[in-house]
Amino acid sequence: MKVQIIGKNIVVTDSIRAAVENKLARMEKYFIINEEVTAKVLVRTYKTAQKVEITINTKMMDFRVEVMHDDLYAAIDLAIDKLEGQMRKLKTRLDRSHKMSLGESINFDNFENEEDDENIEMVRVKEVYLEPMDLNEAIIRLENLGHSFYLFKDKEDNCVSVLYKRYDGGYGIIQGKE
After folding, report:
1. How many whole angstroms separate alpha carbon 82 and alpha carbon 63?
2. Cα separation of 101 and 65, whole Å?
3. Closest by alpha carbon to 119, among 96, 88, 100?
4. Residue 163 CA, distance from chain mean position
5. Residues whose CB is less than 8 angstroms from the CB of residue 78 and which lie 6 or more positions away in sequence, other chains included
6. Is the pTM of this model over 0.70?
7. 3-state secondary structure of 21
8. CA dihedral in degrees (109, 110, 115, 119; nearest 10)?
């Protein structure tokens, strides 16, 4: 697994790098190791807390966690625990649906199934008409609805897009491609 560590408002020292790499080495047993698996770690420091964001990109799926804590090393531990929980949950869902092609880059032999997902129920299904519109109109509609995301058809490239509010302010777009 390739590891890239970036520090914002903090210098990534050798001890921070060693702690992150040691914890991520524990995660390697869950992946089928090849050059395509990369882990990007962003370490930020704020006045009152430390933030660790870890994104692991595999061939078929991406995992992402974000943890804030007073102690940087505790935040790293919590982030690794969250990643393991995400993978355990995915393994349970894939075992139930028999769609293992989604998890081809993950070695699920090292996980046990989680049983707390047994009672997943669909609460609401909503159909929307995807009206072609530009980005500014989508932002206005998002703000008027008071939601954290808005689904629309982009007028420029005719793609289905999701506009969302970012935690750090601003907006992001996810676009579907065929």
Report:
1. 10
2. 23
3. 96
4. 16
5. 52, 67, 69
6. no
7. helix
8. -70
Name the DSSP letter for residue 114. Answer: P
Q: What are phi and psi of 132, to 5 degrees?
A: -65, 130
Burial class (CB in 10 A: 0-12, 13-18, 19+), 21: middle
| 9-30: pLDDT as tens digits | 999 999 999 999 998 887 777 7
Contact 146, 118 (CB under 8 A): no
Q: Which of 158, 152, 125 is nearest to 140 (CA)?
A: 152
Which tokens is 173 given? 């777009």
Which 3 state secondary structure label does DSSP give 25? helix
Rounded Cα–Cα distance for residues 163 and 41 (Å): 25
Distance CA 20, CA 134 (A): 42
CA–CA dist 162, 149 (Å, integer): 7
Whose structure tokens read 């989508």? 138
Spatial separation of the C-alpha atoms in residues 17 and 45, rounded to whole Å: 15
CA distances to 33, 78, 124 from 74, in Å: 26, 6, 37
Residue 106 DSSP class: B
What are 149's strand-pairing partners? 164
The pLDDT tens digits of the residues spanning 118-161 come to 566 777 777 777 878 888 888 888 877 778 898 999 988 888 99
**Residue 129 gets which letter from DSSP?**
-
